[in-house]
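Hi! If you just cloned this repository, the fastest way to understand the data is to look at a raw example. We've pasted two of them here, unedited. The first protein comes first, obviously.
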Amino acid sequence: MRFFDAHCDTIGKVWERGADFGGRDRGITPGNASDDQPGNVPGGQPRYHPGGDDLHVTLPGLRAAGARAQVFASWAWTERYRDREFEVAMNEVKAVRRLCEQYSDDLVLALTGDDISAACEANEPNARIAVIPSLEGSDALCGKVDNLAVFRNAGVRLVTIAWHDSPFCGSTYGSGTGLTDLGIELVEACEDAGILVDLSHSSDQTFFDVCRVATRPFIASHSNCRELCPSPRNLTDEMIREIAERGGAVGITLAPGFLSADYYRKTKSIYDEFWRAIEERSASSDEAGRRSSAAEALIPRPPLDLIVEHIRHAIKVGGEDVVALGGDLDGVDALPQDFAGVEDYPRVVELLMAAGFQPERIEKVCYRNLARVFRETVG
């Protein structure tokens, strides 16, 4: 089976910590992590990354999975990179491009919807994997819509408009406010530039504000069904229908707190404390992240087969053309049981087949739906 995943945070670990994307070692390449790595805080202490220095996404893993396209997100949250947001995000986008150059036999920078479709439909078993740079959160734009063009010229073809609150919009764990006038300009600029709008992390108000102003399909790259797991990061049935009616897609994610209602309840206090520490400035984002990671490690991981229920529910609500995959790999501290990294995506296919899903429907979930959305929106 071919795979197209809508969201991973791998490039942050590669750029900041020298994580070994091309080899079979999931961690830091010996000699790569030093005091002058961009991801070290003063004194040489490593930056916190979800999952530590291990990589969920590697080139051998992508090959083993049968991946045909992967979105690589650049994340430059103001709280962590204040006054360097543009610089950090651009360096991460450049790092994505360097991977495509370094592994040119395996990866290709995809700048158009046709590039992505060609990679997804190629019949050669070793066809190059389409790589799509994205921005996670609009912090990198520094409150200026004009900066979007700079990132587009660098290869960005998807923007997750929220991660936390910004001058453009409110977020799930922020104020809960909606699009600002500047945010409306951003959505319009994305559509004009052929950049796909992504509403994962957006507040409910931002989501429905985008529904009022958007004229093209949009996606939620890594969100699940709120009906099955009450995390506010998940989508209500109404949201799923809105995305479906506009021809967009929902990337079902592997994040345990969005898959399992029980896991969400057990970890909610951990992440409430994370955000409280940030708001009260009682800990840096790195310190708060390390604490939450250590606490979450004590919680038993949920079974992988919960992903089938989210896929089934999203199809029931929005139809088989709305469901896709967006694992949030390298952006989470834990993964479900029996899933260690991108190479384990075939396990999802096995579960879908065992649940009675037909091959044509599985293909839509695994890659066809996302390829269609990008083809229709990305210039």
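Ok, and the second one:
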Amino acid sequence: MKIEISRKMQNVQASAIREILKMTSNPDIISFAGGNPASDAFPVEDLKRISAELFEEDPIGLLQYGITEGDAGFLEAANKFFNREEQVTRAVDQIIATTGSQQIMDLLTKVLCNEGDVVACEEPAFLGALNSFKEDGAVLRGVGFTKEGELDLAQLETTLSIQPRPKFFYTIPNFQNPMGTTMSLETRKQVLALCKKYGVLILEDNPYGAIRFTNEHVPSIKSLDEDDMVIYAASLSKILAPGLRLAVCIGREDIVGKMVVAKQGADVHTNLWAQKVAARFLSTCDMNAHLSRIQAIYKKKCELMLKTMDETFDQRVTYTRPDGGMFIWVNLPEGSDVLKFAKEAIENNVAIVPGISFYTSEDKPCYALRLNFSTPTDEKIVKGIQILGQMTHQL
């Protein structure tokens, strides 16, 4: 019996990163391809202790159904945490718990977009977001970056002005995935002004903001927003652990309220045990010490990778120097065959992700690749980068 796949799923491809990661099950492979947090950054003992305490206090409360919006204690603790450096929650906002920030992308697209509607996004962009928007039937319109690594504001204005106008603009301003770059304060202000001018909402995704290890905090677009233009996605995957599948969405009630209705049909509510564990962690543990420990781990790994790249890469190769996050974006000489480079890297037991995976269309020229520094050990970082460095001299 032949089964016909829906039109909206026919245009969605399996994640190139996930496909590459399948090959990394080989212990001989050094993987710079993933985006997992460093395993030694997980607060394992605290989470074990808190979970045991909660099961002792109220086991039924952990195991029963919860409400779709999220556990009140978790929402209060998360709201306090994500407002610790700046005011992201306004009086008109609603905050809800979601099953990871990926669900925020899915729910917002379901609420705002009919099939064929346009979503604008920075390009290159987080692959998970691109696939989520496509799955919900959106047409993607990419906005590139300047040579200086800033969003191309002229291109953004053109993209926002073209009819049909986008339903929203998606961006990761802090330590962008895949590039590792951080949007300047002035650019954030201009993005907000342009989206206000053309009546286009902003989905600001901030999964890496808490793992800044160099330079000063830059205010979020949400904290600058006085016109309720921004929907804010804040994940706990990089702060606590991705296995919790826990994030919060903060935004205007008329939109977020509809996302709650959509979530009821998706998964009823986010894991209640995870919410209660996270609430206790956020409200009782020393978050400054916890974040400082994570930042130190990532800073050391990033600096080691950059130092080894400086020593071994061909001078024609350029790359970003992130202030936080997990990724370095590498630009090979123009005309390089990045797919061939990635294939040869695997043959040399090193896994990387070709940059074209992060574009709205594979037809666009791309000579870049993404490296992840959070997952591999120090020894594997040095060995793997030395191998890639030798390969760059053969381009």
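That's it. A detail worth noticing about the second one: The first strand starts at residue 30 and ends at 31.
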